[in-house]
Amino acid sequence: MRKFLLLVITAVAFVACGDDDNVWSDNSGGGNRPVHASKLISRIIASGDTSCEGEVTINFTYDKQNRPETIACEMNRKEEDRVSICKTDIRINHGRSMARCEIKKYRDGHEFPDKSHKVVVLDDSGRAVSGDYTNFDFDGEGKYVRSEGQFELTYDRAGRLSRSSVNHLKSDNGFDALENRMTWRGNNLTEISYRADGTDHTDKAYYSDVLNKANLDLNWLCYAHNRGFANLTGDSENLFFLIGYCGKSSRNLPEMIVSQDSSKDHRCFYTYELDKEGYVSMIRVEKGNDEITYRISYTK
């Protein structure tokens, strides 16, 4: 779980290679994240992650069309024998047919010698259908590592993500699932089937009554704690659906996600607090003895 959280917290979005007139539809019945929301997420602060020293802060800014423009993350990351101050700066533009992301990462004030990137191809509906990525980071032993791969995403007739496949050309994260298949019930993604470590798995999500109505998909945080759901878009960062590039998103936020392996079930529980307008202001995640709290702030 800690590995997936670090991948998500230090994640990236997309820098476009062209047009800036991509339009997202309203998400009231499932669909891409809305452009014109009454409130926009400005900051997420995570606390309780035992792989970090203190809090993790993620700040968001938006363009004139209320689309995410920058994401900045700062954390004190525990490594083998030290604590490093890690920062990630992302600039985002939005295009119609092709998108590219370049990420600047810093460790103890020094910029990484290489920039991570992600390139995606979008279909006529603005959905990510294929792409490739290269990522640079330090592992738990302080070694500078590179991972890269290619991926494809497939949608059903209702515009919901139904399959993802990834070819890890070089991977340091130990995740060998090459294909994920998704099952939806109504407006919520309820199951992911995948193969890892030579074993077939099916992870299941059970949803609360809390609506997923923020301008960014808050399931980005919830799914990060489950192996199958954390890899649903073909890479463990789950960046596409955060800002609406994966077709329809789940209408609700989960109450529980169950992962199964040969020995037992692993259950992750979620509770929420809402502000007076019904927007999520806090997410509490409980998995075994671990508990992480996300506090969400919005623009006025």
Descriptive account of the structure:
This protein is mostly beta strands and 300 residues long. The chain is 5% helix and 51% strand. It has helices at residues 2-9, 219-222, 227-230; strands at 15-16, 41-47, 56-62, 68-78, 83-91, 98-107, 110-111, 116-122, 128-138, 144-155, 161-170, 179-185, 188-196, 199-211, 252-260, 265-274, 280-287, 290-298. Strands 2-3-4-5-6-8-9-10-11-12-13-14-15-16-17-18 form a 16-stranded antiparallel β-barrel. The chain is globular.
- Percent helix range: under 10%
Q: How do the helices and strands follow one another from N- to C-terminus?
A: HEEEEEEEEEEEEEEHHEEEE
Question: Cα-atom Rg, whole angstroms?
Answer: 18 Å
Total helix count?
3
Largest sheet, in brief, is: 16 strands, antiparallel, barrel
Instruction: Quote the distance from N terminus to C terminus.
Output: 33 Å
Shape: globular
Oligomer: single chain
Give unreliable regions as ranges: 1-7, 9-31
Strand order in the largest sheet: 2-3-4-5-6-8-9-10-11-12-13-14-15-16-17-18
Which band does the percent of strand residues land in?
Answer: over 45%
Reconstruct the topology from this structure:
Blueprint: H1 2-9, E1 15-16, E2 41-47, E3 56-62, E4 68-78, E5 83-91, E6 98-107, E7 110-111, E8 116-122, E9 128-138, E10 144-155, E11 161-170, E12 179-185, E13 188-196, E14 199-211, H2 219-222, H3 227-230, E15 252-260, E16 265-274, E17 280-287, E18 290-298
Antiparallel strand pairs: 1-6, 2-3, 2-18, 3-4, 4-5, 5-6, 6-7, 6-8, 8-9, 9-10, 10-11, 11-12, 12-13, 13-14, 14-15, 15-16, 16-17, 17-18
